[in-house]
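ok so I'm stuck.
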Amino acid sequence: MTDKLLIAQSDGIATLTLNMPELRNPITDADVVAEICAAMDWLNADQSIRCAILTGAGKAFSSGGNLKHMRDKEGIFGGDAIEVRNAYRAGIQKVAKAVWNVEVPMIAAVNGPAYGAGCDLTLFCDIRIASETAVFAENFVNVGIISGDGGAWILPRQVGLSRAAEMAFTADPIDAQTALSWGLVSQVTPPEGLMDAALTLARRIARNPPRQLRLTKRLMREGTVASLDQVLELSAAYQGAVHQTEDHAEAVAALLERRDGTFTGK
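replied:
not stuck anymore, here's the structure
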């Protein structure tokens, strides 16, 4: 492991920080891919984690691809057509799958520009909070490529087909207030208040029963690709399971007794 992804944990909340500020936090290098995927595996395995925040160090959230590596045909961008295809499969596409499939609720605290794969990385999170300095761009055509990380799948699901097409076809960036009006982010904060806002939201999430949080997220994920009948069947199975938990009994008791619940994940 390197220090390109910093991880902190407190009170059931994990904070992950992309940490290559001098390069604007690119996420296509093999070691960064490995660290992000390992972090998602850790979040899934550690049942004490109830919510996670993903942000970037420095002035940018993430520039997406490493432009110097693009220019020099290095790393994921090196080789012939088959080698590049395989590198995408083994690289940035693994990040998209790992972040999309992480079990805990994930908040993207977008502290600055999120371009290309960096923009898509925010979209694979559940909730986005933006600093006033945040900028979002689906700018792949601007560098002569296409979205290779699943952006064509996730962007229309987040902002609708027309807005997604506008972003992808023009490659023009949108600012935080536009992102808010389009529904790409749920709130905009001053730069100095971004992490406080993200932590406040994370605490509101983390106060709830952890197993039920993970299963609620899974149902919402399945709802993006499954039929209503499939989601209803899965919901019934999950419901049967959570009705047997101690946290369910505690939640009902807390409501009836007009007090806060104390949840253990059991």
